[in-house]
Design the sequence.
């Protein structure tokens, strides 16, 4: 069957062309190249679109992640500022209660003392009541300290004009005021002055009560909450000045005290309880933080919680780097796949164009292959028929030999029987008669014919698969000795010396004794037959490396070449030599011995040198060795 197209592969969408249209080949090639170009552009466009979409998603996801992190931090800042404001309010309430108690003692002392104060007793009461207070004192209406537990450097100050005093000079002043930090003693930490207006029962101005607090007493929240390495908590007054500022590296609250934050988005007009957040660089250390500012409800104070923006965005930044790395890898992969796809499209296009050129040449080759296939099919059918005929002939031969066994043996037994009778009668005392000689010839010929027929029948049984083994366990000595009996007379007649060398401890083997004896008789008979007079035939037995048994028959006869050994192993094979032609036999001795050993699972190995002699090894496999040794009687 001929092919009617130059190319029938439409994987790229290119239509094939009819055979014989050689002029259309150039147009076909041009059409294929244009199609590959269009397809490559589409794939490149899809790849670019995928990359653009991928990076758009990465940028959007990164932006959303950053915003989400900021919103989470803002919510956390609101919660922390509420906790900070609550704790600060409780502390201020405690201070306010203590100051109210001391102010009451001062009014009572003023009234009972008729305008005088017992400074020593009031100082002792202040120390007993105001436990969190570092120092305490009363500033008189003239701005000078009336009594104080503070160091002399502070007690001797004139507070006239200072915010701590001036904030309470007029009625309607705030209940409490936290002033600018004061360094009580040179080289000592600064303290926060908390002041309160004190008036007599009649409303006259008695002075300003001042507590000097350590900033660390204001809150303990910074010790219980992890704000990060650069997070801060701060207390700010409406004037925008930091009164206390806590951080991980400065838990004493003194870092940045006195610094103004009015230059930023600080809103002093925030209503009580109001809160808002903003991002800016810190006024103290210039670290960008997210600040949450909350005004206390009951006091004119602000609390500020600052969380480092780098800490807030650390997770988002790591996610961004991971997204960029993944995006870069995916972009590279998309680019590689796009290039590979375009390259594969062009490779296939060029390949299919080449196929179109070669398809015409392949058409004739295909036709020739079909013709050759038909001839091979005919030859194959003839070979099959010949093999079937040969197999039928071989089976007919085997069946014929099996059927003829009885027919041949019966008359031969009769001939032998009558010949023995004639010979026996002819040898009785009396006159000599030539009948005895004739009977002896008949007997010898009949026995020889029977031996030949038995050999042929044995080989036929083995080849047809009908031969069976009658296995017994015997020492290897018994196998060899039983075989030697049949050839000793033949060896003596030719003056050939038989040498037997067997091990002292004979292994026990499980074999068919009759068939093993037949194997050795065939080998010994051949060795005696092809060994010149005065020669030597030796028989040895030994153990093989794998645990089996080797029986070797060696002669000093004519020997064989490689080709002659191959002939000798074939049924009916006769080696072409003068001595072999003179010797009788059917050429079945070695082939039959080989088949019988194969029936035992063993082997027969032939070694020979032309003019020097022959060695034949009988290999009994290890599976037939029943016991390693048995003493020889």
Sequence:
């Amino acid at each position: 069957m001929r092919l009617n197209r130059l190319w029938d592969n439409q994987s790229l969408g290119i239509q094939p062309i009819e055979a014989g249209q050689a002029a259309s080949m150039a147009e076909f090639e041009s059409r294929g190249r244009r199609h590959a170009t269009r397809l490559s552009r589409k794939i490149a466009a899809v790849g670019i679109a995928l990359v653009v979409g991928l990076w758009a998603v990465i940028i959007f996801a990164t932006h959303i992640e950053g915003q989400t992190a900021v919103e989470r931090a803002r919510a956390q800042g609101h919660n922390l500022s509420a906790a900070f404001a609550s704790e600060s309010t409780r502390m201020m309430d405690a201070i306010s209660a203590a100051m109210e108690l001391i102010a009451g003692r001062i009014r009572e002392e003023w009234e009972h003392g008729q305008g005088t104060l017992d400074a020593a007793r009031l100082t002792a009461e202040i120390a007993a009541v105001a436990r969190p207070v570092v120092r305490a004192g009363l500033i008189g209406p003239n701005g000078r300290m009336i009594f104080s537990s503070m160091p002399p450097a502070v007690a001797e100050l004139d507070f006239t004009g200072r915010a701590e005093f001036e904030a309470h000079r007029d009625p309607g002043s705030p209940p409490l005021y936290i002033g600018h930090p004061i360094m009580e003693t040179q080289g000592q930490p600064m303290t926060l002055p908390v002041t309160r207006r004190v008036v007599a029962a009649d409303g006259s101005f008695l002075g300003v009560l001042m507590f000097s607090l350590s900033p660390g007493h204001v809150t303990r929240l910074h010790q219980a909450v992890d704000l990060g390495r650069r997070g801060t908590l701060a207390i700010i007054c409406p004037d925008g000045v930091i009164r206390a500022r806590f951080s991980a590296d400065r838990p004493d609250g003194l870092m940045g005290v006195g610094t103004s934050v009015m230059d930023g988005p600080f809103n002093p007009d925030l209503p009580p309880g109001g809160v808002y957040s903003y991002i800016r660089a810190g006024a103290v250390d210039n670290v960008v933080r997210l600040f949450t500012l909350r005004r206390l409800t009951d006091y004119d104070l602000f609390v500020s919680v600052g969380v480092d923006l780098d800490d807030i965005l650390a997770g988002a930044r790591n996610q961004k780097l991971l997204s960029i790395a993944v995006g870069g890898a995916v972009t590279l992969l998309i680019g590689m796949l796009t290039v590979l796809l375009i390259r594969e499209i062009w490779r296939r296009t060029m390949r299919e164009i080449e196929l179109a050129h070669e398809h015409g040449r392949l058409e004739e080759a295909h036709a020739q292959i079909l013709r050759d296939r038909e001839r091979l099919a005919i030859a194959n059918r003839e070979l099959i028929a010949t093999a079937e005929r040969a197999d039928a002939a071989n089976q007919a031969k085997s069946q014929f030999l099996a059927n003829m066994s009885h027919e041949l043996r019966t008359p031969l037994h009769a001939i032998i029987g009558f010949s023995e009778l004639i010979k026996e009668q002819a040898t009785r005392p009396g006159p000599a008669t030539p009948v005895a000689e004739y009977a002896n010839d008949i007997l010898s010929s009949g026995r020889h014919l029977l031996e030949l027929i038995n050999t042929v029948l044995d080989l036929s049984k083995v080849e047809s698969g009908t031969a069976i083994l009658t296995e017994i366990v015997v020492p290897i000595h018994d196998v060899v000795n039983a075989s030697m009996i049949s050839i000793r007379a033949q060896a003596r007649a030719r003056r050939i010396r038989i040498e037997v060398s067997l091990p002292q401890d004979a292994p026990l083997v499980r074999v068919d004794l009759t068939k093993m004896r037949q194997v050795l008789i065939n080998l010994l008979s051949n060795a005696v037959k092809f060994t010149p007079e005065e020669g030597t035939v030796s028989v040895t037995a030994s153990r093989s490396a794998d645990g089996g048994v080797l029986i070797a028959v060696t002669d000093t006869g004519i020997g064989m070449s490689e080709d002659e050994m191959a002939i000798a192993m074939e049924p009916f094979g006769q080696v072409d030599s003068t001595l072999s032609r003179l010797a009788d036999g059917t050429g079945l001795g070695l082939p039959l011995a080989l088949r019988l050993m194969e029936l035992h699972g063993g082997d027969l190995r032939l070694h020979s040198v032309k003019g020097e002699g022959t060695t034949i090894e009988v290999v009994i496999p290890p599976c037939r060795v029943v016991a390693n040794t048995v003493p020889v009687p």
About this structure: Residues 603 and 619 are 5 Å apart (CA to CA). The longest strand covers residues 190-199. Confidence is low (pLDDT under 50) at residues 1-20, 576-583.
